[in-house]
Structure formats: structure tokens, C-alpha cells
């Protein structure tokens, strides 16, 4: 299956706060918040939603194509992605711009406060699926909002099955933009908080979203995920991690695992199980692309939790 992964390409600056963000918020004074958190650690990692998703797909034996815009500081990242069996031929370098950057602080309860500098990502709408050739499956993950809407329209026009994954951009995109992304999608993937934002901004609940797409996947952190089709749903549990290192990129890893199941023609429940296990591997490591495993190791751990895997 020829899979194209679109979304942000970024560097992640990951910091840890030795306390709870919620304890710093003073009731009755939330209209004027001015807070600074002294963090204990900081790590710079390769990140961005699209490379995170593509990396998991590559670990699971697929050959995804990455489509996005990056800056003048991308060359080392490109070499690393190429070495990981990710096709970067559709990545466009924007002169005199830096690659997008994600600045994220995580507290002891795994709550996160983050900021995102768009950089070269602001030029993502200059790319087009028309340059990608024949595509079997695409995912539109968080990116420049204009580009996300454009990509959805191109996929509908070109007859490409696509996954709409608005993620963090649910907070930025308008109701009209989100509704345009939902329209004609094969799958919509959101977490439970993003689902509520979708509901508020578009006026569409689960039933209305399923009138626009074939499958709705709602992830729920340690409570796993729910996979819905018209008239049916299935719950898939999360895989208990050996330890928790960092939640950054966990949702992206889930999407990569789920897409591996789609590429193999697996049932919905197996797609969800593959996603759950892939997400746990990411949770056990710092950053979205620092984990590693072989297919044999992945299958062995899968079968410890879910039984025999047949793809």
C-alpha cells in the first residue's frame, strides 16, 4: 500500500516540571494568568506529527512517504529519516526559514503545556497531492490549517482514501475548516478532548461525524480507544507500559500502528490493538521517535496482550 503521511515536521524541545500545573492555577484569578515554570530537564528531539506517524509505520515494515515543509536546518533530520526507511522525496525545504519547533513542558501527572512555532510549516499549502502520484491511503495530521483543508479537498477530488486527524489544531481551526476536513474522510481520529472541541465548533456529535466518514476513532489515554462505525462500536484497551517516560508522540504512534492494520486489511479491533501497543512503546521513551523494536519483538508483545496476530 502506498501511504502518504502529511503533517508538521518539527524539532521538539521537551521539558519536565517537578510538580502539578493545576496546583499553580488560582481560582478566581484565571482571567489574568502569568506563570513561569522552572523545569528540571530539557531535551531536543526530532519530532513533528508526520515524522512520528511515519516512523512507527516504518518500524512496522511499511514504506511511508512523508509530505511536508521543513527549514534550512532539516538536512540532518532528512538523513535520519531516510536511514529509517521513510521516503522524504515529497518534503520541500523553505529557504531562510527554520523547521517548526514544539516547546512542551510536562508535569508529574503527565499534563502538558506547549507552544508551537510554525516556521517552514506555514508554507505547507504550497504542496499538493497531485505531485504524489497514485496514493492508496493518506493521513492529514496537524499542520498549517489552510494546508489541511486543501489536502482534504484534493483527496476527495483525486479519490484518495484519507484519515482526518486534526489533533492540536482543533483549538486553532474554525468550525468551517474542521467541517471541511471531516467531509468525505475515510476515518476521523481524535482524542476525547478533541472530540468535544469538534462538537462545540461544528455542532456535530458522533452520529453526525459518522454521517460524514466511515469510521470514527476516539482515543482515551490509559482507557484505550473506541472505534465506531454507523450502528456499531468496539472498545480496545490500552497496553500497560513497563514504565512511563514521556507522553509526547504517543497519539502519533497510535495512528501509525492503526494504519499498519489498515495496510494489512485487518479488522477494526486489530487495527486498534496495533495502535495501542505502538502507543505504549512511545510512552516508554522520551520523544516520538526514540523508541525502537523489530517486527518479531512487536508481535511477541502483541500476543502477550491480545492473542495470536494474523496479518
Structure commentary:
- By secondary structure, this protein is α/β, with parallel strands linked by helices.
- The chain has one domain: UDP-N-acetylmuramoyl-L-alanine:D-glutamate ligase, CATH 3.40.1190.
- Helix content is 32%, strand content 23%.
- The protein contains nine helices and 13 strands.
- The strands form two sheets. The chain has a nine-stranded mixed β-sheet with strand order 5-4-1-8-9-10-11-12-13, with helices on both faces. It has a four-stranded mixed β-sheet with strand order 3-2-6-7.
- A hairpin with a 5-residue loop joins strand 11 and strand 12 (225-229).
Jot down its keywords.
single chain, 311 residues, alpha/beta, UDP-N-acetylmuramoyl-L-alanine:D-glutamate ligase, nine-stranded mixed sheet, 13 strands, 32% helix
- Range of strand content: 15-25%
Q: Strand order across the biggest sheet?
A: 5-4-1-8-9-10-11-12-13
What structural category characterises the helix and strand content?
Answer: alpha/beta
Query: What's the oligomerization state?
Result: single chain
- Number of structural units classed as domains: 1
Amino acid at each position: 500500500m502506498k501511504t502518504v503521511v502529511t503533517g508538521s515536521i518539527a524539532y521538539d524541545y521537551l521539558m519536565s516540571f517537578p510538580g502539578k500545573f493545576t496546583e499553580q492555577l488560582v481560582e478566581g484569578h484565571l482571567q489574568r494568568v502569568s506563570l513561569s515554570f522552572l523545569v528540571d530537564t530539557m531535551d531536543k528531539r526530532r519530532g513533528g506529527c508526520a515524522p512520528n506517524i511515519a516512523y512507527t509505520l516504518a518500524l512496522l515494515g511499511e514504506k511511508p512517504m512523508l509530505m511536508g515543509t521543513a527549514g534550512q536546518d532539516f538536512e540532518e533530520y532528512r538523513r535520519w529519516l531516510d536511514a529509517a526507511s521513510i521516503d522524504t522525496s515529497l518534503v520541500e525545504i523553505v529557504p531562510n526559514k527554520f523547521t517548526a519547533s514544539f516547546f512542551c513542558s510536562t508535569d508529574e501527572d503527565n499534563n502538558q503545556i506547549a507552544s508551537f512555532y510554525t516556521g517552514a510549516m506555514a508554507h505547507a499549502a504550497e504542496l499538493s497531492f497531485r505531485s504524489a502520484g497514485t496514493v492508496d491511503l493518506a493521513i492529514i495530521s496537524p499542520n498549517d490549517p489552510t494546508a489541511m483543508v486543501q489536502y482534504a479537498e484534493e483527496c476527495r477530488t483525486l479519490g484518495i482514501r484519507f484519515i482526518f486527524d486534526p489533533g492540536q489544531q482543533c483549538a486553532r481551526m474554525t468550525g468551517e475548516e474542521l467541517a471541511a476536513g471531516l467531509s468525505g474522510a475515510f476515518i476521523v481520529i481524535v482524542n476525547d478532548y478533541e472530540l468535544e472541541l469538534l462538537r462545540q465548533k461544528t455542532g456535530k456529535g458522533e452520529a453526525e461525524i459518522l454521517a460524514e466518514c466511515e469510521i470514527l476513532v476516539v482515543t482515551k489515554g490509559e482507557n484505550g480507544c473506541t472505534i465506531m462505525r454507523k450502528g456499531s462500536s468496539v472498545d480496545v484497551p490500552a497496553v500497560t507500559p513497563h514504565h512511563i517516560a514521556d507522553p509526547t508522540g504517543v497519539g502519533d504512534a497510535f495512528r501509525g500502528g492503526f494504519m499498519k492494520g489498515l495496510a494489512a486489511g485487518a479488522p477494526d479491533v486489530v487495527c486498534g490493538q496495533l495502535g495501542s501497543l505502538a502507543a505504549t512503546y512511545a510512552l516508554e521513551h522520551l520523544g516520538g521517535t526514540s523508541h525502537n523494536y523489530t517486527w518479531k519483538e512487536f508481535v511477541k508483545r502483541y500476543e502477550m496482550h491480545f492473542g495470536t496476530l494474523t496479518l
